[in-house]
Amino acid sequence: MDKDFPVAGFSSLAVHGGHRQDPMYAHQVPIYASSTYVYDTAEQGMRRFSGKEEGYIYSRWGNPTTTEAADKIAALETFGLKNRNGNALEVKGILHASGMAAISTLMLATLKPGDKILTHFSLYGGTDELVQKILPGLNIQAEIVDLRDLDKAEQIIETGGIKMLYLETPANPTIQCVDIDELSKIAKQHNIIVGCDNTFATPYLQQPFRYAVDFVVHSTTKFLNGHGTAIGGILLGRDIELMKTHITKVHRLLGGNANPFDAFLLIQGIKTLELRMERHCHNAMEVANYLEKHPAVANVNYTGLVSHADHWIAMKQMRHPGGMLSFELKKGLQGGIDFMNKLKMCVRTVSLGTCDTLLSHPASMSHAGVPKEQRNKYGITDGLIRMNVGIENVQDIISDLEQALK
Ligand SMILES: Cc1ncc(COP(=O)(O)O)c(C=O)c1O
Fold first, then answer.
1. Which one of 3.10.20.740, 3.90.640.10, 3.90.1150.10, 3.40.710.10 gives the CATH number of domain 273-405?
2. CA atoms of 337 and 383, how far apart (whole Å)
């Protein structure tokens, strides 16, 4: 597709975005399984190393297959957005080996000893541990609060010392949402860097660069890949110069580069993102409505339901409420275990974002080692079930839940 062709729809970019004509005229981008790249002459090698000539050098630094995946996601995260001058917004993405690798590059590239991060109390467990267990060793501390309380956020920011506001919305595993627009506006009044994890929403449902966000991260392992075939992550930044220089340097030195095979799988997955997300969201709404009326269920956390505390924030910044929900079984821990054991089609596993419906019971699985009082504080109660509502026929999903809830 020509770069100047004005696509009207998201799926056209999802299919064609980031693609370059292959020198061998392959229809699909090949898996460039090569660790290094050759030069015609020593002079060409010198030009490449000095940056005077574009070209690949070493696959930890860059690889044609991973570049295509990164450029595709960058195109989707900015689809339809304008910069301050009214031109199409452009951002730069760097593909990583995992979501955690992308988050680590972001934090280690932008924070230094003495800096503080302000973040929400409901975060993906790995990010929470990074912020609470690894970064303090570098004298980077975190203020972890309920960021839905904007006055509280402002009050903390005004006391000084905060270098980064880090958002994850909707958040894993409680599906809580925070207001990206309001929080990033407050942060920018104090020159604070804003990062946002957009994994649960994907760029089809939510574009954090629409607001005053500097960096977006994803675990591409999830909805972007869509088929559960590869671990991956991406870090995208609005300041292209900074991304090409300092952030690229840190990424290369930390060594969290993606591999071309996983990037190839990711590219194929992204092409159907819009179709899959439409179906995930449609099915999730039906399942949420069904569960809300079920006598064995105490409550359902789905931002599409008006009963969800963050329904209006989600509606403000998301196209649809997403494919993730969680619900609380009245029978607690044993009820959760019994329910999980009875599932016949839906799959018992952690992770999310795949075509098939996945269910996990955090209290007996991912959070079994976390003391109950601590779990409860984060909303991870004994009977909580987290559900990635897949794209199967929704009647079949509901029938499986029905028989397992008996
Ligand atoms: C919201 C969110 N961010 C980041 C991550 C980390 O991603 P990865 O497992 O690809 O490192 C996850 C993983 O579950 C996640 O759910």
1. 3.90.1150.10
2. 9
